[in-house]
Specification:
Length: about 425
């Protein structure tokens, strides 16, 4: 595949932006090769600097659920931009948007807007600590909640011990306030909660950041019961699953009784916007009402609110039915391969991962057993066939409803050809 233009921009980028990218996964380190530099996108397709056209299975890591450059979203941004792009003062649209979010999500009595998923989980954790007057939080191994200190941690060596910093620059004193537990397991969580020191458990109810993991049904119900028993808040991070698995996210789809939720990605319609919210009594602890401080210059930004509202307005019930049908078509197309080769397919709604492991993983340790080299070859060969999978085994595919029947067929045919060829050698 000719990548002359992308290669030359990547070289130039590496001189001026660390690693050439503004967010690490874009550098393609996990799959080797040059990341395509994107010129434009429309519907379910992206075009790069060398003129290659891809079926986009990332959708900007989730937000583009109605497809790229949807005319109604573009129009809303355009109209709003003509009336000013930021005021640092309240607007009517923020109120309408907040009402729409609370009507859509079962956990939200009140909501506060911010600008990124990272901020939303950082503030939700501070709020939980302020409300419970406890310092410790529990995080699930392999779940991702953004790039801030409390959640950028790794499991310690013992089962129920302190977490270790997940990056240089994070003090161990901070990491040690976070405890970790494996996904789909209540035993370790129980040990943590029994200390009665835990402010909150935060998790992705359907993890997408270690590849897509299917939660066991007893797990989420048991978790919420344990949290109640010990005065610990349950924070469901719906930055990825909110408005993706249902309008009310994973909490609606899987009937989870949470105290706080965080939203991002889809709610911004492709612009930088996120939110956190939950039970009124907890949310009223936020400044200026309460003593937990939180703020943001561009929070509730008019352009982002307009893009978010226009996107949510397009998400009628039929969209979820259609997305489910498209995802099932792809699943049925790929499943026969999982019987012949040591690969597995995990899906919830319109998010899925093809794992290079015989059985679909149940937790992060099992994801680590995948054949990452083979995944890298798979990714490169799919890209050559014009299908842009997420460039890491630790990521999930996010379908957009702009995907057409012929795209679906191209994906299935491509996966068959590539998998057959990979295991033939
Ligand atoms: C993407 C993501 C985040 C971080 O959001 P940013 O906008 O990248 O800061 C947090 N939690 C989950 C579950 C995510 O998928």
């Amino acid at each position: 595949m000719n990548q002359e233009q992308s290669q030359s921009w990547f070289t130039r980028a590496q001189n001026i932006i660390p690693g050439g990218v503004n967010s690490p996964v874009r550098a393609f380190n996990a799959v080797e090769g040059t990341p395509p530099f994107i010129v434009s996108a429309e519907g379910a397709h992206m075009i790069d600097e060398d003129g290659h056209r891809y079926i986009d299975l990332i959708g900007s890591w989730g937000p583009m659920i109605v497809g790229h450059a949807h005319p109604e979203v573009v129009e809303a941004i355009h109209q709003t931009a003509m009336t000013g792009t930021s005021f640092g003062a309240p607007t009517k649209a923020e109120v309408l948007f907040a009402e729409e979010l609370c009507a859509a999500h079962p956990v939200l009595d009140m909501v506060r807007l911010c600008s990124s998923g990272t901020e939303s989980t950082m503030h939700a954790i501070r709020l939980a600590r302020g409300y419970t007057q406890r310092d410790v939080i529990v995080k699930i191994d392999g779940c991702y909640h953004g790039a801030h200190d409390a959640v950028l941690v790794e499991a310690g060596s013992g089962v129920a011990t302190f977490a270790k910093p997940g990056s240089a620059g994070i003090p161990s004193a901070i990491a040690e306030l976070t405890r970790t537990a494996p996904f789909n397991d209540l035993e370790v969580i129980k040990q943590h909660l029994e200390t009665n020191e835990v402010a909150a458990v935060i998790l992705e109810a359907v993890p997408g950041n270690m590849g897509c993991i299917v939660p066991q049904s007893a797990y989420l119900q048991g978790l919420s019961a344990l949290c109640k028993e010990h005065g610990t808040l349950l924070i469901v991070d719906e930055v990825m699953t909110g408005f993706r698995l249902a309008k009310g996210g994973a909490c609606e789809r899987l009937q989870i009784d949470a105290d706080l939720v965080t939203l991002g990605k889809i709610v911004g319609g492709g612009l930088p916007l996120a939110a956190f919210g939950g039970r009124r009594e907890i949310m009223e602890c936020l400044s200026p009402l309460g003593s937990v401080y939180q703020a943001g210059t561009l929070s509730g930004n008019p352009l982002a609110v307009a893009a978010g509202r226009a996107t949510l307005n397009l998400l009628g019930d039929h969209v979820y039915t259609e997305l489910e049908e498209k995802a099932v078509r792809i699943e049925e197309g790929i499943l026969p391969l999982t019987e012949r080769f040591p690969i597995s397919f995990a899906r919830v709604g319109s998010m899925f991962t093809l794992f290079f492991r015989d059985q679909a993983p149940q937790n992060f340790d099992q994801v680590k057993e995948c054949d990452f080299a083979l995944f890298g070859s798979f990714h490169r060969k799919m890209l050559e066939k014009g299908v842009y999978f997420p460039p890491s085994q630790y990521e999930a595919v996010f379908l957009s409803n702009a995907l057409h029947e012929q795209d679906i067929q191209q994906i299935i045919d491509g996966v068959h050809e590539v998998i057959e060829a990979l295991f033939a050698t």
